[in-house]
Amino acid sequence: xxxxxxxxxxxxxADVFLVQLALKENDVDCHMxxxxxxxxALSQEALRSLCPPQxxxxxxxxxxxILLDLNTPKSDGFEVLVRLRxxxxxxxxxxxxxxxxxxxxxxxxxxLLGVTRYIHKPSQLEExxxxxxLAVKEMLxxxxxxxxxDSM
Amino acid sequence: xxxxxxxxxEVRACVVGCASGEEAYSIAIQLSEYASTLDNAPTIRVxxxxxxxxxxxxxxxxxxxxxxxxxxSPERLERFFSKQDGGWQVNRDLREICLFSxxxxxxxxxxxxxxxxxxRNVMIYLGQxxxxxIISLFHYALRPAGHLFLGPSESAVSQPQLFGTVxxxxxxFQRKETLPRPVVDFPLSDIxxxxxxxxxxxETEERDLPKRLExxxxxxxxxxxxxxxxxxxxxxFSGRLSRYLEQPTGSPDANVVSMARxxxxxxxxxxxxxxxxxxxxVVQRLVSVQTNGGISQVDPTVEPIEEFRDANLYMIAxxxxxxxxxxxxxxxxVQTSSAEETIRHLEDELRSAQEHAQAMFEELESANxxxxxxxxxxxxxxxxxxxxxxxxxxxxxxxxxVNAELNRRVAELDLTNSDLQNLLNSTRIATVFLDMELRxxxxxxxxxxxxxxxxxxxxxxxxxxxxxxTGVDLVSDIEEVLKTLTERERQLTGTGERHxxxxxxxxxxxxxxxxxxxxxxxxxTTLQKAKRQAEDAKIYAENIIRTVRGPLLVLDADLRVQAxxxxxCYTFQVSEDETKDALLYALGDGQWNIPELRRVLGxxxxxxxxxxxxxxxxxxxxxxxxxxxxxxxxxxxxxxSVPLILLAIEDITxxxxxxxxxxxxxxxxxxxxxxxxxxxxxVDGVGFVTSMNPAAEKLLGWSFEELRGQKMHDRxxxxxxxxxxxxxxxxPGLQVLTRxxxxxxxxxxxxxxxxxxxxxxxxxxxxxSGSEIIGLVVVFRDVTERKRAEAxxxxxxxxxxxxxxxxxxxxxxxxxxxxxxxxHPEAVIAVHLLDESGTRFEHxxxxxxxxxxxxxVDGMEVSSAIGPFCEAVLTRQRVVVADVAASAxxxxxxxxxxxxxxxxxxxxxxxxxxxxxxxxxxxxxxEPRVPNPASNFFGEIVTRTAAIIVERKQAEEALRRLNxxxxxxxxxxxxxxxEPLRMVMTYTQLMARENKGALGPQSDQFIAYxxxxxxxxxxxxxxxxxxxxxxxxKIESLIPVDCDRVLEKALAxxxxxxxxxxxxxxxxxLLTVIAEELPxxxxxxxxxxxxxxxxxxxxxxxxxxxxxxxxxxxxxxxxDNGIGIEAAHLKTIFAPFKRLHGHEYPxxxxxxxxxxxIVERYGGRIWVESAxxxxxxxxxxxPAQKQEYSHVRL
Lengths: 152, 1194
Known about the structure:
heterodimer; A: five-stranded parallel β-sheet; 6 helices; 39% helix; B: 1194 residues; 34 helices; elongated
């Protein structure tokens, strides 16, 4: 069994690979479910899989972290965010935004919607791997102080 | 008939039953023929009567057919008839003898005093009784011994006592004289006569006792008696008659027969008849009478009363038979008398009744006829009288007329007489009238003086007096005149050296008969004297004339030259001989022959009118053009001398020419004053108006007559346009009066008569008399239109300014339209803009019109049928509708705009410089109106302004949109390129890490280049984003920013490079500008950063920042001692990504572009001054005060 359950909503397979690489290089042992767009993630099946009827017996099925790319096609990232927050058994799951957007306004808006971390995708490979990996580790063990990895 | 009758008396004949008048005329002819044989014939009158009006009217006309010639002898036809229209007309004199009238001898009263009655074949139609009556009437109507002429079967013998027979065969009878005269049964007295024994006598008897007793006795004992007329009418009743008579039922009747009781009527009538015919006593025996008690026997007796024979009365006495006898007799009679007896009785009774009825009928007829005839007579008499009366009146009238005529003649004669008398006296011509024997008939008082005649000399022969005159044989002259009947004149000298002119004329009476001669003596003594005086006057005049220097002529009444002086002869090149006695008009070459001159000279003498300064112009070949002034008047000399005209001629040719020149000058001035467009007026020394030219009157609205005697200032200049009073003493124009220096080009406002103001430019100049200023001349010009035009141009300018300030097009247009409407208050303006396709109206700006208008037009397809604003788009021409209500061109438009109080308007196309029609400007008026130059100008300015604004604004907006598109593109590019670039970079690095060393040393290098390139690109994109972000960020609020603090912040951010380079940054006190803190910080950071970056290697950078106030802005400068910029690059240095250097100076070249963006964001500008190799100074200016973008308001 894995230490944790992570849901990644990201449309770009290159970035999915990079995120997985970042978690691996930072020793995060997890089971990752990936949705390539918001609609898919919000479908009944997806939500059920995230939250089966026997949820109480199998708490492992509730993700520990949700990683959300704001720029997914077919569905606005914000909308997905709102829906996730409105889903009762997911309402308290920490969400980290990973995005390539430069707009500062996006960061403020996501904060209002209860986002735990806001991770700007760095252009440099090494920076990407460390930033994403450390951020996830930090989210999984909130008590352990870590260096702020999100960029401006 | 004519015997014993002379002139003045009448022979009267009557033709009864004249029918169509032949008989009457025949009798008249015969009587007339006979009368013409007598010396003193009486007047003949023939009455012709008939009862047939139609016949009478024929008779009166007196026209008979031609056939009467067979019965009438030619002599008589000729004498008494005239031929007319194929018939014979009775002549007037014959007709006048005959008097026709509608008259009946039976009914009407008869004529009287007739000599002849012709009544032929009339009586045969009448009954016997009537005949008798008529005969007796005829007897009455005729004079004694008058004749009655009856028809062949008629006779007057029935009354032998009245007429005797004259010629039995021709039935001519003569009236007999009977005594006593028979009672004529006049038709009128028909009722009166039988009532002779009325009730009146009874009353008188009653007063007498014996008579009353007698009467009682008679009543008791006398037999019952009735006096009756022949026809049975009771005249008198006596005794008790009730046993025999009773009043029958019905109307009262006095007839005994009808009153008789049953059984007695027939015997009574028979007896009465018998008694009347036989004139004897008749007794009817034993007549049975039905009485009240039964049947009684009566013996009625009828007896003519001889005493009343004329009245034809009969007595009827009723006696009762003795009772016994009567009964016996009666029974016996009843028994014995058989049916025969009864039949006899009845037959008798019938016969008698018949006779009686016949008699009664005849009687009635005759009475009627008699009455009619009497009436007829009266009528005809009346007519005769009327005619006579009228004749008398007309005769009287004629007499009156003649009398008046005579009176008038007499008055005329009197008047003529006295006129003649006065004439003779007044002429003072001695006149003597002589008869054929040359004896004096009469003479005038003047003649008394000549001949010493006295009244007693009338009748003396003239020969006694002729000796008084010498040198003439008066008598033989007179005789000669009488012989030849021609007049003769003689000059002779009388006593006392008096000269006379004698004229001898035959005296002709009114009937042109010669009845003597008339001698007139005219005293010519004074005439002779006058002749001598005339001679003297002539010499006198000639002497005057010769002595005067100017040309002079003396003319007589015929305008003949009596004298001409030498000056005249010299001036007009004529000799004195030529002029003598020549007519003025014939002088020289006839130059004086001027009709008008002739007329006025002709008036000099008769009307005593002097001719003064009469101007004559003429051209003569000899003298050339001359202007002459003529003066003429009558030369007054002694009483009685011949009147002469003195004509003085003055040559004023030269003087006239000079005057003409003067007049031209004055006329020129006047023409200038009258025709100049500027108003001109003059005032006297205290400001009273003394003159005005027409332009001034027109401009001010006052006529000179209205302002004469008023102060001009008080009427046209008394207030300022703002309503404050303008005292005269403050008026600079009037101050010229005191200051004496002319004023020109003064701008002011005058007031029209209606109280409206208008802009003027005026000049005021003093009028001087010598050194004294006696008034002002003021010239002014209405500059309202110019001012308006100026205002319009400034309006246009303001519109452009507002446009330039960046306000939206619709707002600019709306503000401009409102301002234009204020400027041109009578107009309402609408601007219609088309969409890009140019086929549909998109926007309407019409702030002066209701929103309905805008709603209706917006979105409308352009179609010529809709209205002028569409038509203008299609035709690209101005479309004028001078009266919307009257124009049939755009009915829908009219229906739409008339309720909006629009009556006229024109639409002008807004045409862009490219030729595209952008829309239309419509100018509307609430009254019908035709364009004038002012409105044309207004419309043109509005349209042109609108065109420029719209075109530029549209172009600008197109540019702005393009710019926005570009910005969006750049923004998108700078963001969207980032993501793929990150992929390139990340995976290149990943590839390099995973395959480190495996690809060979060259490949590692290649990968390093790729990563480097990606990194550079990433930097470019970052700078680009930063550059756009300056644009992107909205200006939240501009606040005063303390630049000292901003500089401090920037220096803090630059701390590292400053330390690294060892730069020294100094600054003055910086001022406060209106901007935002953060961009301003970036601005300083960039400029100072650049100064450090582009430093000279040999010199540590020294940077100085300063600021100063300049105009409304603060100008900053950042000066360095760096490498400087080549002059060629100074202009391009602020362009984005412009780099002047290679890798020695890192950067993307966006810094200065961002600086420029920031400065422009606050309405400022940035520029650079540099000396290459020595350093550069970057300068920028930012407004110090808040700039109101919308402060530009029109």
